[in-house]
Design goal:
Layout (H helix, E strand, L loop, with lengths): L1 H6 L11 H32 L3 H65 L4 H18 L6 H31 L9 H12 L2 H16 L4 H24 L4 H26 L12 H32 L1 H37 L3 H33 L7 H16 L1 H16 L3 H51 L11
Helix pairs in contact: 2-8, 2-11, 3-4, 3-5, 3-6, 3-7, 3-10, 3-11, 5-6, 5-7, 6-9, 7-9, 8-9, 10-11, 10-15, 11-12, 11-13, 11-14, 12-13, 12-14, 13-15, 14-15
Main location: membrane
Organism: Triticum aestivum
Pfam families: MatE
Length: 497
Amino acid sequence: MHLLGVFFHGATLAFERDDLGREIMGIAVPGALALMADPLASLVDTAFIGRIGPVEIAAVGVSIVVFNQVTRIAVFPLVSVTTSFVAEEDATSSDRNKDEISGENEHNVSEMDELITHEENNATSSKSSFETDSSEINTEHKRKKIPSVSTALLLGGVLGLVETLLLVSCAKPILDFMGVKADTGMLNPALQYLVLRSLGAPAVLLSLAMQGVFRGLKDTRTPLYATVAGDAINIVLDPIFMFVFQYGVSGAAVAHVISQYFIAAILLCRLRLQVELLPPNLKHLPIGRFLKNGSMLLARVIAATCCVTLSASMAARLGSTQMAAFQICLQIWLASSLLADGLAFAGQAIIASAFARKDHLKAKATASRVLQLGLILGLLLGLLLGVGLHTGSRLFTEDQGVLHHIYVAIPFVALTQPINALAFVFDGVNYGASDFAYAAYSLILVAIVSIAWIVTLANYSGFIGIWIALSIYMCLRMFAGLWRIGTARGPWAFLRS
């Protein structure tokens, strides 16, 4: 099987600090930390709200699931295609600029030689002219012209406004569908939090679109600094709005919205220094390419969202205690797994650049390295969560009923970490190869099977059944990513030779 050749290729170099290793870590570590920052801020929200009561934490838990899943549906396809397209365009434009500068330098040197031959006294002025020309060339190319950047910002802004209108106008029926009923006491706090949080959707989607741009440029440090600064503001404002001003769950939502607009402002100011944001003409924007590939990933993310949202809905139907435990475990499950997304981003950006340059050797080496690191990371996360959650769960709640259900879910949260890590890294590897069609079709099939398991096991086994079904879902998702490379199909057909 070709997978063995890829997975064990250079296995002894997994921790080697060579050029490839440094490039991967330079993207993966800041990228993972940036991804971790927002879920950690949500965990802080959860911890503060947990001090109010189990009903409030369950209500906000449902609202967070709804907001995050709607946001994921809206922005995930955009961010994924943006990273690949920006990496491809940046690689090809960089090569083209190098060729142009090289040709320009050769032309200038040739002219200088003629001037030196015919007029020795003008050599100094000719050299000065040459240096000035080179300086002008460097200045000209300082701000990059990448059409995909403008396209991503345009689509991100439009999608953000659409999401706000959707959630504000449909908040109550959405929560009703999620199992939040008025007689449970969860409806009012859930409604308040969701409506206020939705006002920050334009900032969230623009920020995520810009993060996709920076990842394509192989710069994950800038999003990290912006995200940490914004989340620090969120953490400071949370207790002020919630307890000093006594706004309760509404205060948590307002603090989060303020922090998101702050993050968007930082990223936009930084991006305009590196890239020309406004194209000379809308005809230059690859909107059609974005929509074609984005629509395929939209189908994929809807399928994935259905699985997670259905799980949360089934947990809410079990009661506020089970939903509170599910929300805490889900946040930890997703937050820890996001570390693997850092490796996925690195793999995607480097592989996309390699494919654009037709450098198949680097594509294979990168895929091997990030998969090996992903497996190791998953094993370490599983060990850490298996040990740490038994004592750390009291940071989120003191309710004994909620704690009991958290302890039930710990084995599933911990043991699935290696599977989750490989699944996410396989996603990044296949996105880097622009294999969006396979990514969409395969996950739709996985979701169909998983939804049947979620409904069946939740009805027969309750809370533990939901976690068994989620574990099955992640196993199938990992296998789908493995199959494409393992059979050397699609863009990976070169592995056969």
